[in-house]
Amino acid sequence: MNELRISLVQADIFWEDKDRNIERYGNLLKKLSGKSDLAVLPEMFSTGFSMQAFHLAETNEGTTIQAVRSWAKEYDLAVCGSFLAKDDSERIFNRGFFIDPDGKQSFYDKRHLFRMGLEQKRFTAGDRKVIIPYKGWNIRLIVCYDLRFPVWVRNRKNEYDVLICPANWPIPRANVWQILLPARALENQCYVCGVNRIGRDGNSIEHRGDSVLLDFKGNRIAETVPDEESVVTVLLRKDLLDDFRERFPAWMDADDFEIL
User: Fold this and answer.
1) Is residue 176 within 8 Å of 41, Cβ to Cβ?
2) Nearest CA to 106 among 127, 81, 125?
3) Active-site residue flag, 74
4) Residue 165 appears among annotated catalytic residues
5) I need a labelling partner for 50 at 20 to 30 A (CA). Which of 27, 63, 136, 255 fits?
6) CA distance to 25, 72, 111, 138, per residue, from 11 (Å)
7) Do 160 and 128 form a contact (C-beta atoms < 8 A)?
C-alpha cells in the first residue's frame, strides 16, 4: 500500500522579515521530524505577499531556499511552498518550490498573476506546469490565484495524484477558496491540498487560513482551525485513489485541452 503523510503548516507571516519567518517556520517543521513525508507552507512564506519585489527577491541559492534545503535534509521530509525569486536577468517570479530530503529540487513559477494586487506589473508569469514524482506519487504544484483556472490545472489522463496550492487567500474571498478547492478535486479525481496563511499582512489585508486537504470525492479529510497557527498531518492512500479512478473513470471522457 503506497501511503503519503502530508502536513498542512498554517501560520502568520512577519511582513517582509525573512529571518523571523525562517525561524518561525523552521520551529514548526522541527516538530514534524519523523512524523511526515511532506510539509506544505503558505505562499511567499518568508516575506508575505509583498510587491517590494526587487529588494526582497532572491535566487534559488538565496537565504530562503538554503533554509528549506536544510529543513528537508535534517527533518527527513519534503518541503513545498513559494517564495519571491529572481533570475540572472533580474526578472521577478512568485516561485513555487518542492525540495525533498535527498536535495532534489523542483521549481514552478506562478502562471496566473493576481492583477488586482498589481502582481502582473512586477512579476513575470511562468510558462510551464510542474509535476513532481515523490515516493511513488505524482504531485502537481500551483500557487494561489492559479486555483481559479481549471484548464491550466486539468489532470490529463491522471498525470498527477495530488494537487498542492500554497496561498495568501484573504478573508473577503474565503468562500471562493472553499468552493474552488473541492471543485478541483472532483473534476481532476485527485487529492487536493490548499495551505493558506493567517493574520494581517502589511497592506492590512486579513487572512484566516482555512487550510484543508480533500480527497478525490471532494471530502475534507484534514483541516486547520481558522485564525490559529496549526500543523495538521494526514495520511493519504494511493490504493483508494487508484480504486476510485478505476471504478468511476470519468477522466477517460475529459476534454483533451491543449495546454503548455
Assistant:
1) no
2) 81
3) no
4) no
5) 27
6) 8, 19, 25, 26
7) no
C-alpha cell at 213: 486537504
Q: What pLDDT is recorded for position 120?
A: 83
C-alpha span between 73 and 79 (Å, rounded): 10
Q: Is the dihedral of CA 26, 104, 188, 118 positive or negative?
A: positive
User: How confident is the model over 106-147, as pLDDT tens digits?
Assistant: 999 999 998 887 788 889 999 999 999 999 999 999 999 999
Q: pLDDT by residue (tens digit) across 158-199?
A: 999 999 999 999 999 999 999 999 999 999 999 999 999 999
Distance CA(168)–CA(248), nearest Å, equals: 34
Whether residue 114 contacts residue 87, with contact meaning beta carbons closer than 8 Å, is answered with no
H-only helix segments in 52-173: 53-56, 63-75, 119-122, 150-153
Long-range contacts of 199-206 (CB under 8 A, 24+ apart): 199/12, 199/13, 201/13, 201/15, 201/48, 201/49, 201/168, 202/15, 202/16, 202/48, 202/50, 203/49, 205/170, 206/170, 206/171
Helices (H) and strands (E) in the chain, counts: 7, 14
Catalytic residue among 58, 80, 86, 110: 110
Which residue is associated with the grid cell 506589473?
121
**Closest CA relative to residue 84, chosen from 39, 40, 119, 135:** 119
Q: What is the grid cell recorded at 189?
A: 479525481
Core vs surface per residue 59-94: b (16+ CB within 10 A) or e: ebebebbebbbebbeebbbbbbbbbbbbeeeeebbb
Predicted pLDDT of residue 218: 97
Kindly name the residue from 58, 86, 144, 190 that is annotated as catalytic: 144
